[in-house]
Amino acid sequence: MSPWIRNKATFVALVVIVASWLGEVSASAQSPAIQLHPDYSSFFEQAGTVGTVVVMDVHHQTIDVHNVERAAELFPPASTFKILNSLIALETGVVTDVDSHVLKWDGVTRQRPEWNKDHTLRTAIAVSVLPVYQQIARDVGLKRMTSYLDRAGYGTGEITNENLDWFWVLKGFRISANEQVQFLKKLYLDDLPFSQKTIEAVKDITILERGEDYVLHGKSGWTTDTDPSTGWFVGWIERGNEASVFALNMDINDPSQVPARLTITKNILKVLDLM
Prior knowledge:
Elements: H1 8-22, E1 33-36, H2 41-46, E2 51-57, E3 62-66, H3 68-71, H4 82-92, H5 121-126, H6 130-140, H7 142-152, E4 156-157, E5 173-174, H8 177-188, H9 196-205, E6 207-210, E7 215-223, E8 229-239, E9 242-252, H10 260-271
Parallel strand pairs: 1-3
Antiparallel strand pairs: 2-3, 2-9, 4-5, 6-7, 7-8, 8-9
Helix pairs in contact: 4-6, 4-9
């Protein structure tokens, strides 16, 4: 265990992480090795913000954490929910294929020009087309949506017919960085209530970058329904047969800070020799 346990809040947060992790492994499995990284604060300070990052080695049960208290705090998942929304869309048949099924533009001109056209699921997640995923949520319906959220163990909050098509950006529905990491670990390990075909398809459309010896999967998110706004970047990085899942969230006080979600995460992954 890291020596940087400086106050009661940190200790309690560590207990929460360990307890939640142990709930996901067998009784005979080894307890996770947790390393705290207060030194990562410099990455956030350079961007003029504060936040947390959790990186979990899937196979070796090691967890690297910056700002352990915030890692347990709940925030709206924003567009990171599009990972699960894509799984649900494919599993229910609302979307039949990530490339051939055309999701028609509704004809409403929006501020982001890349949204004002037809999309496939692959292109929609790539440019985070909110109207497409809102229509998917409506087509899935409240009953099936809440059922899959429960079965996947994703998030906390009330979902109604009134907020069904945008609950993930509202402060009434929330998830922690720790919980995001647990969800992504299950996705990577094919341990979610979806078919193998569905899981493989979503893994494919979340690839952001291929390096010489790694593949980076991920999804960003940003909601203005919190004060300050909340930014996310979550995903996993594969190196051969090894993989680490990660979740970052941070305060966004100004739109100029939005790119820092990816920059900070990549810098930390490089420090950890993962890319």
